[in-house]
Amino acid sequence: MSNTWLKSAVFYEIYPNSFMDGNGDGYGDFVGMTAKLDYIKTLGANAVWLNPHYDSPFMDGGYDVRDFFKTSARFGFEADFDTFVKTAHAKGIKVVLDLVSGHASEQNADFLKSAEPVRNDMYDRFIWMNDVWAKPQGFRTVCGRYDRRGSYVVNYFSTQPALNYGFNRIDDPSWQMPYNSDAAIATREWLKSVMRFWLDRGCDGFRVDMADSLVKNDDDKSATSELWREIRDMMETEYPDTVLISEWSSPQALKAGFDADFMLDHAGNPYNILLRAENAYFSGGDAKVFADGFDAWYSETKDAGLIGLSSGNHDTPRLAPHYSAEQLKLIYATMFSLPCVPFIYYGDEIGMKYIKDLPSVECGFSRTGSRTPMQWDMSENAGFSTAARTFLPTERDKQVNVAAQLKDKKSLLNFVKELLAFRKSRPEFISKEFCVEYAEGAALCFSRGSLLVAVNPTKTKQSAKLAVQPKAKVLFSAGKGAKVKKDGVEIAPMSFAVIEN
Ligand code: NOJ
Residues 308-347: pLDDT tens digits? Predict the structure, then answer.
């Protein structure tokens, strides 16, 4: 990793539609986001990840890109984007964009050209079969919409045709091209041109959407990994201080050249076991199951790159109201004390709630309830917008808004600020040192160099036996914290503590 800033980065994820409306049209935009950069900074974040801001018909919240080289007019002028990046940099905040690498929108000009019936220079840019009647196994295809004789493969929704990075295993040579064919390489070069375009505009790297999906029939992901290593080399040579973060959720991603990889909510993985599974550690589950899983993942990846751990994201239900504000304090403290790059999804720092049963907007479906506008205060539209109608309904909640929580010393927002400030003050949290010291029942203790972290999410006090006795000094805590005893620590109910080791 040539970039060093990522090691001490704390990200704030912004869903542009929902953060701050600067022009009163009911949608968030760059003017609004720029005005709130100080808020992000005082929270303790030093990087933002922006969900797609590109020109799009918004049939998948902007993950259906119509023009990869253009800012959506919904979010402002190109100059507004540039001002956002410039202002963020002036405040010491890095800007990471979403790179939608696997597919485009069905309204993308290159795709429409590829759909013409006569061969042209875009004919092989997307994956087309040459028989409109065929039904290939293992692929989702759309047929009968264009005059080209064939169906096209989609990468996600049917509005998102798959870009052609070729195939590793060729089952049907009549339409599957090798991943090192000229056509597949041309797509790879096109992707690099998209990246260069935004890197030249000043962005500091990318979060790569569905990073493992590019080469098809790539069971061991070796060809996809080869592709990303080549792109990483390009970035290292041409843009040395930039980062590549994958949505992949596998130790393989870091070996493929990514600087960091998100651990997503996939059934049975450590993130899921920590927070989101039915018997998750924070919902009464066993500390050992989480600790063993995390330890194994970390040991496998620590020399290759970093793990991204997030409070939530635009695809998952928010943790509140399933977890209370007091539980969220323990969760964030535990998660961000682990060796990781922390990501805070906008609104999670105040405990914004997942809104159940909202009618889907822009193909958010069940994800819609995690995308409602940021709750700034108790004014109209919760301070998000002055429009008569907003992109999604705003929740006005006396407790869950920034203005109220700033005033309340014990609020979740102020806790997150203290937590991030403490984390920043201790180099142990960005070191590679991590060791599980005790994980039994509900008690979890791990060390980060000279710090011991102790957690108890239950309503009863827990004891943890430790091989090495920590010093008595508690440096940071939530709940009633923990006490050092003769042979270990006693952790108060619903508590978290960092103790000098
Ligand atoms: C993952 C993104 O996070 C999600 O929001 C999107 O719908 C799919 N990839 C498709 O791009």
Answer: 999 999 999 999 999 999 999 999 999 999 999 999 999 9
pTM over 0.90: yes
Tokens 């006490």 -> residue: 483
- d(Cα 124, Cα 109) in Å, to the nearest integer? 14
317 Cα to the center of ligand 1, angstroms:
14
**Is any ligand 1 atom within 6 A of the Cβ of residue 210?**
yes
CB burial of residue 183 (10 Å; 0-12, 13-18, 19+): middle
As a whole number of angstroms, the distance between CA 356 and CA 349 comes to 20
Sign of the four-CA dihedral 137, 141, 143, 147: negative
For the record, the structure tokens of 109 come out as 């000009």
**Best mutation site among 105, 210, 245, 368 for ligand 1, i.e. most ligand atoms within 8 A of its Cβ?**
210
CB 451 within 8 A of CB 431: no
- CB-ligand 1 contact for 156 (6 Å cutoff): yes
Strand order in the sheet with 474-478: 435-440, 443-448, 451-456, 495-500, 474-478
* β-pairing verdict for 443-448 and 451-456: antiparallel
Residue 463 has φ and ψ, to the nearest 5°, of -110, 145
**Tens of pLDDT along 9-40?**
999 999 999 999 999 999 999 999 999 999 99
* DSSP class of 52: P
The residue whose CA is least distant from atom 5 of ligand 1 is 315
Centroid of ligand 1 to alpha carbon of 365 (angstroms): 12
